[in-house]
């Protein structure tokens, strides 16, 4: 099996991508900050080779790219952990930096993590009969990012959107490049075996933190009538699987045709669904779960995943009940570890 480069392996999703790529038999290079190379190498062992890259925006990937046949770029700034400028540069310039260096090194197969948020998660659209397709975009331009009056979420949507558009614009002028974006919505699930969470590091919970706050640790003891975030969701293991499958996807000259939405409408769950399922599946924790009597099921948009099915062969997804159970179990284990 060929050697590949994966960035962002210390993240929630990146750790799963690394785990699945290793299980698929790939030989793997990974990157991290230079100061963390030795500790990460010791943690991951001899299954991978760790390279230091000081910054995703301007860093030199030349050593990490030697001998590889493909790149999976999962690294990127997270909302809540990065300022506005860091979100913009880390998302846009970070993606372009590694794409350009890979192509210059004659590594043409490139997969990068984007988000379904680039298709515009305006609540008026999310809570409707709309069907998201790869033709949907969040309405933002680089010029508009100069206006700092927008909130952090707007900048995150805008940054990820512009990053995708510029990546495909680069592919349009470099037909030898085979670029795929993987666009999941909010993802939940267990943590990968090698994922590290420091004691009390709430940020390391990543998107599972939303699950924790809305299912396992609801301060009011009661779910609100309407779910405000995360109703279109997917299992993190399915998102990682899409990245690895993309390594073998056929090249297409149609720019933008490998913008792949990941998810399954039949597997979406609300916080109400999650709580009520756990009350049945995990009765031992029922007394800590919130009251769902006022929570309502609302209309939720659908997602056209036909391109992912066609290009990746990804047609089946983890049942939402398993996602809920495994996420809860993982978070309860972390909670127990933190309290010890």
From TrEMBL:
GO terms for molecular function: oxidoreductase activity, acting on the CH-OH group of donors, NAD or NADP as acceptor. Pfam families: Epimerase (PF01370). It comes from the Eukaryota. Keywords: Oxidoreductase. Residues 4-256 form the NAD-dependent epimerase/dehydratase domain. Belongs to the NAD(P)-dependent epimerase/dehydratase family. Dihydroflavonol-4-reductase subfamily. PANTHER family: NAD DEPENDENT EPIMERASE/DEHYDRATASE, STEROL-4-ALPHA-CARBOXYLATE 3-DEHYDROGENASE, DECARBOXYLATING. This is NAD-P-binding protein. It comes from Rickenella mellea.
């Amino acid at each position: 099996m060929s050697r590949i480069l994966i960035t962002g392996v210390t993240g929630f999703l990146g750790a799963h991508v690394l785990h699945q790529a290793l299980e698929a038999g790939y030989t793997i290079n990974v990157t991290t900050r230079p100061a963390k190379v030795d500790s990460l190498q010791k943690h991951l062992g001899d299954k991978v080779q760790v390279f230091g890259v000081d910054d995703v925006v301007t860093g030199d990937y030349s050593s990490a790219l030697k001998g590889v046949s493909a790149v999976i770029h999962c690294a990127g700034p997270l909302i809540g952990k990065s300022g506005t400028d860091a979100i913009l540069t880390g998302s846009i310039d970070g993606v372009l930096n590694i794409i350009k260096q890979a192509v210059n090194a004659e590594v043409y197969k490139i997969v990068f993590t984007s988000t379904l948020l680039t298709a515009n998660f305006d609540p008026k659209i999310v809570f409707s009969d709309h069907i998201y397709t790869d033709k949907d975009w969040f309405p933002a331009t680089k010029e508009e990012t100069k206006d700092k009056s927008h909130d952090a979420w707007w900048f995150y949507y805008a940054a990820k959107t512009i990053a995708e558009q510029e990546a495909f614009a680069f592919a349009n002028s470099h037909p030898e490049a085979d670029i795929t974006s993987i666009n999941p919505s909010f993802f939940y699930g267990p943590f990968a075996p090698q994922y590290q969470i420091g004691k009390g590091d709430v940020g390391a919970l990543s998107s599972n933190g939303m699950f924790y706050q809305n299912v396992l640790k609801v301060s009011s003891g009661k779910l609100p009538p309407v779910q405000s975030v995360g109703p279109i969701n997917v299992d993190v293991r399915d998102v990682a699987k899409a990245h690895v499958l993309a390594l073998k996807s056929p090249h297409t000259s149609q720019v933008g045709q490998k913008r792949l939405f990941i998810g399954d409408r039949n597997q979406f769950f609300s916080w109400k669904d999650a709580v009520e399922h756990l009350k049945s599946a995990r009765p031992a924790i029922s007394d800590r779960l919130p009251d769902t009597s006022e929570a309502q099921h609302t209309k939720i948009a659908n997602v056209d995943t036909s391109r992912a099915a066609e290009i990746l062969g990804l047609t089946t997804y983890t049942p939402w009940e398993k996602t809920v159970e495994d996420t809860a179990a993982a978070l309860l284990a972390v909670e127990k570890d933190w309290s010890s």
